[in-house]
Design brief:
The protein has one domain: TIM Barrel (Alpha-Beta Barrel), CATH 3.20.20. The protein has a six-stranded parallel sheet with strand order 5-4-3-2-1-9, sandwiched between helices. Strands 6-7-8 form a three-stranded parallel sheet. The chain is α/β, with parallel strands linked by helices. It is 48% helix and 15% strand. The protein has eleven helices and nine strands. The radius of gyration is 16 Å and the shape is globular. Helix 2 crosses helix 3.
Amino acid sequence: MLYRRELSSMNKDKIVKAILQQGVLPLYYHPDEEITIEILQALYKSGIRVIEYTNRGKQALKNLRSLAKERYTQFPDLVLGLGTVTDSKTASKAIQNGADFIVSPGYTKELSKLSNDENILWIPGCMTPTELVQVQDDGLHLVKIFPANALGSGFIKSAKEVFPDLLFMPTGGVNSENMESWFKAGASAVGMGSSLISKSIIEERNWKQLNTDAIALVNKIATIR
């Protein structure tokens, strides 16, 4: 059985709107299926409804499929994406295994075409004006600025002047302490991995702390914006 939802119920504009409203896109990977689900349970309990599961290990697609399956019983309004997608083969498998959207660390014409053909949201990673021009020409809107810690918030501030219609989501090195500078520079949302879902939280399986931290993060973003 495949776990892809009907296109009519999960269109691209709705997903973008949900990410922007949430303000943060949590992203993580863990090889253990049980822990993968437990992390999602803690995030979902905190009010998070859009997450990116990253393609960072051999179990990624299998665990994505498990999350998609659990969505029907535990997480009915979850929007589930697969990140670190760099080729069309992986993207196709992600879609087949339940991904509502895909995220990449870079930009390729191949993935742009596939996302258009499959009518699925693709969030490309960009770090140069040349890539932003390509994204804009393709009619895409939400862009992952990566690696954000190498570029700095000034990149977004300058890029917004030239690309006012693009929506920027810095990812990589963004944390609770520095994210205000990103939003003030013009970010529409931020991607956050280990600074939210830390190694210590996972090792201790301290899901109560993760739940508390996620709630505090969303509240802080609301205050900043």
